[in-house]
Design goal:
Elements: E1 7-9, E2 36-41, E3 44-51, E4 54-56, E5 60-69, E6 75-83, E7 89-90, E8 96-100, E9 106-110, E10 114-116, E11 121-133, E12 136-139, E13 141-148, E14 156-158, E15 161-166, E16 172-175, E17 182-185, E18 192-197, E19 200-202, E20 206-214, E21 221-226, E22 229-230, E23 235-236, E24 241-247, E25 252-260, E26 269-270, E27 274-279, E28 297-300
């Protein structure tokens, strides 16, 4: 059989020792990455596929592997090892095998896999008939397993692999990688930035400008501005809030806004613009200040 298509793993080497598969080179062409592949060794044909081919962080994907024979020689599968992208998490109870007995029809049954997280793989064992001959036609074996895409997964296209052991064969047959890819779409979570400012203020007196980012991000900063002029340095977001103590230097209407920088998994956003009316301090003779104690301005943006 062609050595460039498969490689036999010596019997002393566990099928679980297959290497982890990683980011596909040239992942910029992720949309064209194949989500199904078929390989043949001896009279065993195996087709592996993944659905969906694209998934966001936290979503699930299901790999399906179908074993067939291309001649009248029966085969018995003893071990199937699925190699998944690094970090993908097995969904408990999802592994199942559909197979037929020598004289019975097909049935689907759950199987308990042996997990090998160090090698990004899991294995199931049994004795499953693969046959296609007179009185035993179309007895294929199908293995299905579902994984969760990690919440912190990198965006990109990731390959997978496969290894299986046929009874009476020396060692396992391995295709790793096999060319069945899943594309992780790491879209940022949309945020809104709210803003609280005083309705009025006096020149030289410190007031608080507060921005609230929702949903609460992990990190990031907020830049407050007066019109187009930045007010101080960006302020770190802690527990979804950023507060700047600021003293206005001139009278008049000051148009305040806040811009969230964005952070890991959270998109940037900007608040609506609110106005603070600034006047000089009342000197006690009744003609110093303008305006009354205004109410607190509060509004959320996008």
């Amino acid at each position: 059989m062609p050595q460039n298509v498969i490689r036999r793993v010596a019997a002393a080497v566990s099928a679980a020792a297959v290497v982890a598969v990683g980011l596909v080179a040239g992942s910029g062409a992720a949309s064209a990455a194949p989500t199904s592949a078929t390989k043949t060794t001896d009279n065993v044909k195996v087709t592996k596929s993944v659905s969906p081919g694209s998934a966001e962080r936290g979503a699930t994907v299901t790999y399906k592997t179908v074993f067939e024979v291309t001649s009248a020689v029966d085969r018995y599968l003893e071990t199937i090892t699925d190699v998944h992208p690094a970090g993908f998490e097995y969904v408990a109870g999802s592994a199942k095998v559909t197979a037929s007995g020598l004289t019975s029809g097909s049935s689907t049954n759950p199987v308990t896999p042996s997990l090998d997280n160090a090698n990004n793989s899991l294995s199931v064992s049994g004795s499953w008939l693969v046959s296609d001959r007179w009185l035993s036609e179309n007895k294929d074996v199908t293995f299905e397993v579902t994984y969760k895409v990690p919440d912190a997964a990198r965006a990109g296209t990731f390959d997978s692999g496969l290894s299986f052991q046929v009874g009476t064969w020396l060692g396992a047959t391995t295709f790793n990688p096999i060319g069945v890819n899943v594309t992780v779409e790491a879209r940022d979570i949309a945020t809104t930035t709210g803003l609280e400012v005083p309705g009025t203020a006096t020149v030289g007196s410190a007031v608080d400008l507060t921005a609230t980012v929702a949903p609460t991000p992990a990190g990031g900063t907020v830049q407050f501005t007066d019109g187009e002029v930045p007010l101080g340095e960006p302020v770190g977001v802690v527990d979804g809030k950023a507060t700047l103590s600021h003293s206005f230097g001139s009278v008049g209407a000051h148009r305040i806004s806040a811009r969230f920088s964005g952070s890991d998994r959270h998109a940037a956003s900007v608040s609506p613009t609110l106005t603070t009316q600034v006047s000089v301090a009342d000197d006690g003779d009744g003609d110093g200040g303008t305006g009354s104690a205004g109410s607190l301005g509060r509004l959320f943006g996008s």
